[in-house]
Every structure is written in structure tokens, then in C-alpha cells.
Amino acid sequence: MKQGKLLGLRRGRPFVIIGSMSKGSYKVFAVLAVSVLSHTVTAAVPVRVDVPLPVYADGESSAYAAAPGWGAKDRTLKITLSFDASPTNNVEVALGAGPGGDFPDPDNTTAVIGWDCGEWSVTLGLTRERFAAGASNPSSAGRRTLEVRVRVDANGTPVDAAFTADSSPITFQGLESAALFPWLSLDKWGAFVVTSRGGGNASAGVSFLADGTNIILR
């Protein structure tokens, strides 16, 4: 599948063709004009991982990836976790110093964010201090998406963070920015792993966005 490939200019504006490649034929789904919001366009190019299905239905599986490169003009870190939720499964993304075969070992994990048996959770660093946020319809199974957006300064130090679950803002009780930011600082981690326990059909993406430019194709 090929999606969102920038092909060129049409009447002075960039355009995108979205389609799929199958057995040598290319089927076009849509042609989209892209508005340029700044003089220099830097589109988010996320690193995405899909967790393989476990051998057993109630087993555990995980997928590891290095974080994308952070550019000098990037000012927003975006983490997205999408999965099939249930009241009894656990799906999380862990950030760490990596790489390493034992990642995410507690000694090099900076933060763990995700779904834990019906609620959202954040666990920080070596202290393993855990914070929770309630989920809508926690006893209902279905597809869920968690998104974390962290604004950083020119040094990669976080200055603001926002969490949304299924497009609605959520707040982790007792989690102060002063405690969260040191663990999300870009000099503290360079890789992430997504783990699914008890099923979940999970995937996660990490990307950096340039300040003032955000191109989203759906």
C-alpha cells in the first residue's frame, strides 16, 4: 500500500495521490491538494511499528523501533498508540535509551504510556511511579487510540504536554508537568517498544513536527 506520496506541483500547488499497488496495477483513490502553511514545509514522517500476533490468544508480544531523527526546527513530539482494547488486556508503549536486546529493561526505560485493564496509565522512570486516567466505557471492548503531543524548546526540553484518548482530552490524576517533562526530554530516550498482553492488535507511531506546519492526510 502506498499512501500520501508527494508527486509534484499542479498550478503552483503541491498535490498528493493516494492509492494502492496490487499485481502491477495502481488504483487511484484520491488526488488531494495540500495547503502550505509556512515557507518551509516539513511533514511528519512517523516511525510506526505493528505488534505481531502472539502465539497464544492470551499471550504477550512486542515490537521495537528506534525513534525518528529530531530536526533543529522540530518543536512537537507526537506519540500515537492504536489497539483493540478490552477490560482485561494491557497495551503500552515504553520509551527508553535503547538500543538493546533487553529493552525496555527498567534501568533504561524513561516512561511507559498506555492502556491497563480498563484505564489509561503513565509510569515514570526508575521510580516506577504510576498515574491513571479514567477511560470512557472501560468495560466495553473496541478500538481505541491514545495520542500524546509534547511541545519542546530548541534544546529538546518539553515545555507542554497534552493527552487525548479517542479524540477527547484526558488528565492523569496527580501527574504534574514538572515530574513528567524530565522523562520525556529528547536527550533521555532514542527508542520505543510496543507491548501487547492478552491480545490487542496494536500499533504505534512516533513523529516529530516542525512548529507551525502540520500536514495530516486521512
The helix fraction, in percent, is: under 10%
Distance between the termini: 14 Å
Strand numbers in spatial order across the main sheet:
4-15-6-11-12-13
CATH fold name of the largest domain: Jelly Rolls
Going by helix content, strand content and strand pairing, the class is mainly beta
Shape: globular
Q: Over all CA atoms, what is the radius of gyration?
A: 19 Å
Task: Please tell me the CATH architecture of the largest domain by its name.
Answer: Sandwich
Number of helices: 1
Number of domains: 2
| Average pLDDT taken over every residue | 74
Taking pLDDT < 50 over at least 5 consecutive residues as the criterion, the unreliable ranges are 1-43, 212-218
Largest sheet: 6 strands, antiparallel
> Briefly, what CATH class of the largest domain?
Mainly Beta
N-to-C SSE string, H for helix and E for strand? EEEEEEEEEEEEEHEE
Beta-strand level of the residues, as a percent range?
Answer: over 45%
Strand tally is 15
What does this structure look like?
The chain is mainly β and 218 residues long. It has 2 domains: 1-35, no CATH class; 44-210, Jelly Rolls (Sandwich), CATH 2.60.120.200. Helix content is 4%, strand content 53%. It is built from 1 helix and 15 strands. The strands form 3 sheets. A 6-stranded antiparallel β-sheet has the order 4-15-6-11-12-13, covered by helices on one side. A 6-stranded antiparallel β-sheet has the order 5-14-7-8-9-10, covered by helices on one side. The protein has a 3-stranded antiparallel β-sheet with strand order 1-2-3, with no helix packed on it. A hairpin with a 2-residue loop joins strand 12 and strand 13. The chain is globular. Mean pLDDT is 74; it is low at 1-43 and 212-218.
